[in-house]
Write a structure and sequence with these properties.
Layout (H helix, E strand, L loop, with lengths): L1 E4 L14 H7 L4 E5 L1 H10 L3 E8 L3 H8 L7 E5 L1 H8 L7 E6 L6 H7 L4 E7 L4 H13 L4 E4 L9 H6 L9 E3 L3 H10 L3 E5 L5 E2 L8 E7 L7 H4 L3 E4 L11 H13 L3
Parallel strand pairs: 1-4, 3-4, 6-7, 6-11, 7-8, 9-11, 9-12, 10-12
Antiparallel strand pairs: 2-5, 3-5
Length: about 270
């Protein structure tokens, strides 16, 4: 490991980590920040994205060595005391484990659909702008062997630091593509031979009634408004039966129930 001590919060080598929360909102010009031991383990193990450096609290280094051993040998590992780390980040860094990685060129929805196997399960997100929900859906997708997540252009970025953290690193593991609108994604997956289901509290079929096709896509919409009528009208709609008098499940919880049902048929 290439261990490098940092004693100055203005050290130019760690500029990408400075004022993390503000940079989360402004963007990082082709980079993203991963946070936490579990997330870095996935980053180094999955090898879908190229790590550029690590910044870690000096008292976390010993416990992180097994994870860091999975990283490229020449990867810079910057080590800082807590006071310096907090000033770099702009707030108290309780986890004290960060990495910066390159996004790469990304994958288009067309290219991702073309690369999927003959038997595949895809999740399609429409208008989901909450990072906690997107992160949780990615975590559920990984847990139930989903082959891909497609997000329309109005969804939030799955490589936002909080989304990655909530996903427990699944956003770094499950293939995804973001772009286009719901209509174009529906057309793309129809041409690729996917049976498509829209999950909604007003769905006409119970989730236990549907049967997984060799290629199946499950559509999820935003909290409150749900999926647009144009999506609902383009495919079979399904619901998760719940207690009478209660409106609906959170979209992330609903995704877990629905994906488990489809996983059980794999």
């Amino acid at each position: 490991m290439n261990i490098l001590a940092v004693s100055d919060p203005d050290d130019p080598r760690i500029a990408a980590y400075r004022d993390i929360r503000d940079r989360d909102l402004a963007g990082r010009d082709g980079l993203f920040v991963a946070e936490g031991k579990v997330v870095l383990d996935v980053l180094f193990s999955a090898r879908r994205f190229a790590p550029l450096s690590v910044l870690i609290l000096e008292n976390r280094l010993a416990g992180m060595r097994p994870v860091l051993a999975k990283a490229p040998q020449d990867l810079p590992v910057y080590v800082a005391p807590r006071a310096v780390m907090d000033r770099i980040a702009g707030f108290p860094m309780h986890r004290g484990v960060l990495a910066v990685a390159a996004r790469g060129s990304g994958t288009s929805p067309d290219d991702l659909a073309a690369a999927l196997p003959e038997r595949a399960l895809a999740v399609v997100l429409v208008g989901i702008a909450n990072h906690d929900n997107v992160g949780s859906i990615f975590r559920n997708a990984a847990a139930f062997s989903t082959d891909a997540v497609l997000l329309d252009a109005t969804c939030c970025d799955p490589l936002y630091r909080k989304a990655i953290r909530v996903s427990a690193g699944a956003a770094l593991k499950v293939p995804f593509a973001r772009g286009g609108d719901a209509t174009s994604l529906i057309r793309l997956l129809r041409q690729a031979g996917f049976a498509q289901f829209a999950l909604s509290p007003s769905g006409t079929s119970g989730i236990a009634e549907i049967r997984r096709a060799p290629r199946t896509a499950l559509y999820l919409g935003t909290e409150g408004d749900g999926l647009p009528a144009s999506v609902m009208g383009a495919m079979q709609t399904v619901r998760i039966p719940i207690a009478e008098g209660f409106d609906s499940l959170n979209v992330a919880a609903a995704s877990a129930v629905a994906l488990h049902r489809l996983y059980a048929e794999s």
